[in-house]
Specification:
Largest sheet: 7 strands, parallel
Family: Belongs to the UxaA family.
Domain SAF: 13-83
Helix content: 25-40%
Strand content: 15-25%
Shape: globular
InterPro entries: GD_AH_C, GD_AH_second, SAF, SAF_UxaA/GarD, UxaA_altronate/galactarate_dh
Structural class: alpha/beta
Distance between the termini: 56 Å
Protein name: Altronate hydrolase
Number of strands: 21
Number of domains: 3
Keywords: Hydrolase, Lyase
Radius of gyration: 23 Å
């Protein structure tokens, strides 16, 4: 329940969360007879019961850590008196999935581009992808000149540069190739120019083999070492791509044609209470209409994986979730790192204390949708419902993976703010009014409104914005020219 100075989520909780900066001596509205013993910043936790040393601290109805010392009710609960209890141990029992959320009675439509393979695009753009970092600037020059030349004929010409594609081995090179091949297959790319150097490990011919045959017809390639003037030749190839892509027209399409990527970055203590549950409603709306939602950031579900496992469509999916989470924990421990080395300094300043707390808030973005598939890094979605995708928590790496997997809109929640944008339209959802007011050039939607108007009103407003963006309305990141990719580097460099 909520009041004007704090929010209390679950009757089992031993802490409430401050909705504004609170002073010592202030009475807590959501718990009778509690007076704050010290100042508590917005997004930070307040003990609503006495918590014994070593006892679990409860939020969202689940343990988020243990008390390092006795905590009296009314006290600030944070890293000075609470610690993670997360370990690398697994062990979960399979249970059939509970019923998903009820589908919307009248889901909205959007104006999108229906591709020949049946997928829907929210943009009709030309993407220029360098195979190797050596020609990153060449790719950018081609895209910049082509965008000026063809403005208005397509929705944009964009280069997505990166420093990889050579001096990589084995799985590391395969990962780079998989991401680029998946981006080249994306429905939002009405045409793709691959720009290679010629001598790199990530050879163009091998990369094209990983692009599905049905997408290869809209792909052109350029080897800079073999070209006379690589910029002019690249522009000629983009001209050809634009001629074909410009024939596409927007048409009304059902909500179930969307592929929704969900992501959080720069989270604060309100993210798991406002913006993330709101995005969860969007996951439910899209999957309930027969569409697809993708959740990633696997290290940021540690401590909350049981909530996703409980929604596995079947035993095989349950076991795939378990393998993915346990494998990621092993990735940490094999490098001598604890699985709990999270939240970030910004998260902590915003009120998040442990990874368990952060994860329990982060998985709210998945709503109640049934998990129907689990994908490796660089793979593409194929099943309706909620897909769990292998990628780390890093904002740029995970959002690139969401784009490559086929997301046509990304919902990105944040309590601290970030200007980053990605290959597909990225809607920034603030967790609080202050961020939305301070950074209107970054933020598209004020998720803090759910504390004033309720979750239903907020969900209706955000769903309307999604339909508008899918129909062509620019996001803040698009207006700012924020369009980036980042590839997950895991192996040795030669």
């Amino acid at each position: 329940m909520t009041a004007n100075n704090a929010i209390f989520i679950d009757p089992r909780d031993s802490v409430a969360t401050a909705l504004r900066d609170l002073d010592a001596g202030e009475r807590l509205d959501v718990a009778e007879g509690i007076t704050l013993t010290e100042p508590v910043a917005r997004g930070h936790k307040i003990a609503v019961v006495d918590i014994a040393a070593g006892a679990p601290v409860i939020k969202f109805g689940f343990p988020i850590g243990t008390a390092k010392a006795a905590i009296a009710r009314g006290a600030h609960v944070h890293s000075h008196n609470m610690a993670t209890a997360l370990t690398a141990d697994g062990g979960h029992a399979y249970r059939p999935a509970a019923d998903p959320a009820t589908p919307l009675a009248d889901p909205p439509t959007f104006l999108g581009y229906l591709r020949p393979d049946g997928r829907a695009a929210t943009r009709n753009e030309i993407w220029v992808l360098p195979t190797v970092g050596c020609v990153a600037r060449t790719a950018a020059k081609i895209a910049e000149a082509a965008d000026r030349r063809h403005r208005g004929r397509v929705d944009g010409v964009h280069a997505f540069t990166h420093p990889f594609g050579c001096s990589q081995l084995g799985d590391d090179l395969d990962g780079t190739r998989a991401i680029l091949a998946a981006l080249a297959s994306h429905p939002n790319a009405g045409g793709v120019l691959l720009v290679g150097l010629g001598c790199e490990s990530n050879q163009i011919d091998r990369l094209i083999e990983d692009i599905p045959p049905e997408a290869r017809g809209r792909v052109r390639s350029l080897r800079a070492q073999s070209a006379g003037d690589e910029i002019d030749e690249g522009l000629t190839l983009v001209d050809e791509l634009v001629e074909a892509a410009a024939t596409a027209k927007r048409e009304p399409l059902p909500l179930g044609k969307l592929v929704l990527g969900v992501k959080c970055g720069g989270s604060d203590g309100l993210s798991g209470l406002t913006a993330n549950p709101l995005v969860g409603r969007m996951s439910d709306a899209v999957t309930g209409a027969g569409g697809q939602a993708i959740l990633t950031e696997i290290p940021e579900i540690f401590g909350a994986e049981h909530l996703l496992m409980a929604r596995a469509a079947d035993r095989d999916t349950f076991e795939a979730i378990e393998r993915l989470v346990d494998g990621f924990k092993a990735y940490f421990t094999a490098h001598g790192e604890p699985v709990s080395e999270n939240p970030s300094p910004g998260n902590i300043a915003g009120g998040l204390t442990t990874l368990e707390e952060k994860s329990l808030g982060a998985v709210q973005k998945a709503g109640r949708a049934v998990v129907t598939d689990v994908l490796g890094y660089g793979a593409r979605v194929s099943k309706p419902g909620l897909t769990l995708l292998e990628a780390p928590g890093n904002d740029a790496v995970s959002s690139t993976a969401l784009s490559a997997a086929g997301a046509t809109v990304i919902l990105f929640t944040t309590g601290r703010g970030t200007p980053l944008g990605f290959p597909v339209p990225t809607i920034k959802v603030a967790s609080n009014h202050d961020l939305a007011a301070r950074k209107p050039g970054w933020i598209d939607f004020d998720g803090g409104q759910v504390l004033d108007d309720g979750m239903d009103a907020g969900a209706a407003a955000l769903l309307g914005l999604i339909a508008e963006v899918a129909s062509g309305r620019e996001t803040a990141a698009e207006r700012n020219g924020e369009r980036e990719i980042a590839i997950w580097k895991r192996g040795v460099t030669l």
